[in-house]
From TrEMBL:
GO terms for cellular component: outer membrane-bounded periplasmic space. InterPro entries: ClpP/crotonase-like_dom_sf (IPR029045), CtpA/B_N (IPR055210), PDZ (IPR001478), PDZ_6 (IPR041489), PDZ_sf (IPR036034), Peptidase_S41A (IPR004447), Tail-specific_protease (IPR005151). Belongs to the peptidase S41A family. This is S41 family peptidase. Pfam families: CtpB_N-like, PDZ_6, Peptidase_S41. It comes from Marinicauda algicola. Residues 1-22 form the signal peptide.
Amino acid sequence: MRLHIIASAVIFGIGAAALAVSAEGDDRREETFRQLELFGDVLSRIEADYVTDPDKAELIEAAIEGMLSSLDPHSSYLDPDDFQDMQVSTSGEYGGLGMEITVRDDLITIVSPIADTPAERAGLESGDRILAVEGESLIGATTSEAVERIRGPEGEPVTLTIGREGQDAFDVTLVRDIIEVNPVVYRIEDESLPYLRVTTFNEHTTERAVEAIEDMSAAMGGRLPGLILDLRSNPGGLLEESVTLSDLFLDGGEVVSTRGRDPRNTQRYNARPGDMLNGAPIVVLINGGSASASEIVTGALQDRQRATVVGMTSFGKGSMQTIVPLRGGRDGALRLTTARYYTPAGRSIQATGILPDIAVSARRLDPEQPPRFTEADLRNALDNENGAAREEIAFEDIEQPPEDWAEDEDFQLHRAKEILGSMLETRSAQLQ
């Protein structure tokens, strides 16, 4: 199989050269051939003179990975095992600790822990750096290498060394588990306020959200009066699921559009007629760990004036990745950034994130502490093509918990309930 990877790389090189011949002219063709020749010379010299006999397939894989990672933080090569793991994770069940990770400044960094997993229960946070696994450094490791080191048999403990802003590095021991990601958690808050938390966008998200809304409607004896939609620390997932979830709350119209390198390839995704809540007010909760598909939903509901967004500015991942299997997946796959997405108002949130309508922090803030990491901080992150920069909310404009607020009480949810309750009172008064 690994020899097939080498063959695929050679074929890719030949194809690139052929493309140069047909589309780029003689000068570009010669430059392409020169670079391919340079690659072959380096590989030959390593094979001939390196101090030990190298694994040629590993060298080719490393070259492919390096090529893709130089493009942006989200393009990468998935070897056959990683490709299989990715397919399993989007179906909703996989082994591990339950967190989305990326590389920032050569450090493995947590984008967000997934709800009700060992990572969340251990108190790991968005922005934490995983410095070592079982005492062995992860500095300079790729995400694939980190995943391989972190994963293991269910029930076995693993100790991570965590770096967190403003604290000394510390160790935390977690027990590996089978992560059965339930994409939806729901309940009735305070006997009258429906609450729906979406933790990820996998193949079952919209289906489970519909079941949750129907269950809550039955419990309340009719249509829901309103809804708190919690997308905090939701790292995203499948574009199609973000569109169908948004569709539940919109009566037609655009949800999101995607644009690739060729503007003629713009695609628009629209909601169907019919709002499952019949116009009832919605409060959307977001934070710095809300990324990608969760930002699509938030942007659609905000631009369409369908929801009030509460919390902190989202992560700012406004690009779309396409999975390209190699030889039917036998040689793994490419995860390649192929488009940017835009909210119904034409906003690109790449590197900027979505600003909440009402800024509410989960904890008391230190004005001297730097802001938490975002998409814009990642190495080779795409710029916002409109030239927009991430806007930091003024410290005095952020609602914060009172000094005596209990740490185990959710202040953002508390404010969301107050805001939705006020909206319901106003709506009731208007109907009378």
